[in-house]
Amino acid sequence: MKKSRPHSEQEGELVVPKSVAVIMDGNGRWAKQAGLERIRGHERGIDAVRTTVTECARLGVEALVLYAFSEENWQRPKREVDMLFRLLKRFLVEERATLMDNRIRLLHSGRRERLAADVLRLLDETIAMTADNDGMRLSLAISYGGRQELVDAMRALARKVAAGDLLPDAIDERAIHAALYHPELPDPDVLIRTAGEQRISNFLLWQVSYAELHVSDVCWPEFGKEHLLAAFRDYGRRVRKFGKVL
Ligand code: IPE
Ligand code: IPE
Ligand code: MG
Asked: Which ligand gives the minimal distance to the CA of 25?
């Protein structure tokens, strides 16, 4: 069910999606335009994360998935990768109060194997600390790839078949969905991507099947409340047919 609320400053009605996914792109470009090092863009991106997270929670979004580090991002220069994880660690500690104040429950989507022990420790601690929060669920996609998630799901199902716990013919959409990293999260209603790029970049391949796409031209560090509201207003204008005739 979509929640609709009137929004006085803007024309028309603001439709708040139940589930939102964001490909936070353009940190490097933002920094370059400002004559700064790429890493400064990532640093500024944290402020945009805080704004989007708190605003989504305030508006009543139930689930928000933020693409923070893709499986493919491991191929970036080590210096940039190290800095990104340093920022992530800082975020995990410094934003705990924000998460608790807004009753947000943190989750992780992605593979744990390549994550350093200190990153995993902070991630697990913050996840545990927020586990009883009953507000918005926020999943950080870190070391995440949509294809890799499907590979992991297929392996889990294959293991069940091999153990005699699952019949091949019992593998249906529901079974595959249940083997994803967070089957409890609703599929995104809207997928927002910043910095004008019109591609999925291996994000939530299974889950975005019927997501509405919203591309914002602003780079992630500049993505503020007004851009999020613009995305939701755009979403509110979409006619979702799910293959049917309305
Ligand atoms: C997004 O910004 C952040 C991550 C992918 C971690 P980019 O670093 O991709 O910025 P651009 O695309 O180079 O501008
Ligand atoms: C996607 O952005 C990954 C994240 C936002 C974490 P990229 O900048 O890595 O994607 P491409 O390379 O433009 O497809
Ligand atoms: Mg990019």
From this structure: 1
